[in-house]
Amino acid sequence: MIQRIQTLLLLAVALFSGLMLTGDIISLTAGNGTVFSMRFMGMGEQGGEIIQRLWPMTVILAIVPLLALIALFLFRNRQLQMRLTMMVLLLSLGTIILGAFYILMFDRKIDVTIIWKIRVLFPAVSAILAWLAYRAILKDEIRVRSYDRLR
């Protein structure tokens, strides 16, 4: 299991997605000096309570590492592993779109300046790694089918 490249790629996806569950994802500074941050549980003042819950984003951020770990252990069922990996890819892309949507909506309510964090790149990195894992699983499936054809 560990010798397959898709295992390492799916493990990296789970790691990057799991890191999204901790700390601030992005910070926003209002004109009056108030600093807001987008976290796993929602949008709120930095170090304070949450002002607005972002349930769709919270659910997606929790599901992506879980699906990546489940797909990691489905190495005997490549078809299901490919489907779960594609779901991880699509949910990672959905995280990017949903995060941009929330930032734009918050910017419309309050004029803010965006302070970018490195965690903003983690969903994109997860999506790329999930795509590479999907391709590696597909190559394994094609190789196994060609061996079955030779028998």
What features would you describe in this structure?
It is a single chain. The protein has one domain (5-150): Butyryl-CoA Dehydrogenase, subunit A, domain 3. Helix content is 62%, strand content 14%. The protein has helices at residues 5-19, 55-72, 78-109, 122-150, and strands at residues 26-30, 35-38, 42-45, 50-53, 112-115. The protein has a 5-stranded antiparallel beta sheet.
Work out the radius of gyration: 19 Å
Total number of distinct structural domains:
1
Order of strands side by side in the largest beta sheet? 4-3-2-1-5
The largest β sheet comes out as: 5 strands, antiparallel
Shape: elongated
> Which structural class do you get from the secondary structure elements?
alpha+beta
CATH architecture: Up-down Bundle
- The H/E string reads HEEEEHHEH
> For the terminal residues, how far apart are their CA atoms?
24 Å
The number of distinct helices, counting runs of at least 4 residues, comes to 4
CATH topology: Butyryl-CoA Dehydrogenase, subunit A, domain 3
Helix content: 55-70%
- Beta percentage is 5-15%
Number of E-type strands: 5
Report the CATH C-level class. Mainly Alpha
Uncertain residue segments: none
In round numbers, the mean pLDDT is 89
